[in-house]
Amino acid sequence: MQPNFQISHRDENDWTVVEIHGEVDVYTVPQIRDHVVGRIDEGRRRIILDLRRVTFIDSTGLGVFVGILKRIRERDGELRLVIASQTVRKIFDLTSLYGVFPIYDSLDAALTSP
Predict the structure, then answer these.
(1) 8 A C-beta contact, residue 71 and residue 93
(2) Which of 51, 93, 94, 107 is least surrounded by CB atoms within 10 angstroms?
(3) Does residue 1 lie in a domain region?
(4) Angle in degrees, 0-180, between the axes of helices 59-74 and 29-41, rounded to the nearest 10
(5) Which residues does the UniProt record annotate as the domain STAS (predicted)?
(6) Which residue pairs, CB below 8 angstroms and at least 24 apart, start in 6-14?
(7) In which domain, by residue range, is 56 found?
């Protein structure tokens, strides 16, 4: 595990909010996948990945987010991302994934958007 990496979740309204702190890379992706897939397997269909405290994302991180999105869509669910860092947002822009994921500036916006 990477130093300073943390992942946790909580239920808020009808959403499960998964907070990720630190780097999303080849070392942390297995934990992220297991954690989020565990929530999906428990029947959670509306998930928000709170990436406001993520400092770096590599290609394996992007890949795990795409995989999670596919798994949720197969179950008629919804995935939203919260990204505050312009550096992290730029990764989604450069890879053309910005249009694939609904991305919000704040957790409140992600929770209240129709």
Answers:
(1) no
(2) 94
(3) no
(4) 10
(5) 5-114
(6) 7/31, 7/32, 7/35, 9/35, 9/39, 11/44, 12/111, 13/111, 14/46
(7) 6-109
Residue 28 domain-assigned (yes or no): yes
CATH code (residue 62): 3.30.750.24
Percent residues over pLDDT 90 in the chain: 91
The whole-angstrom separation of Cα 37 and Cα 45 is 11
| Identity of residue 77 | G
Residue 39 resides in a domain: yes
Q: Using 50, 70 and 90 to split pLDDT, how confident is the model at 98?
A: confident
What are 26-67's pLDDT values in tens digits?
999 999 999 999 999 999 999 999 999 999 999 999 999 999
How many structural domains are present in the chain? 1
**Chain-centroid distance, C-alpha 35:** 11
Average pLDDT value for the chain: 95
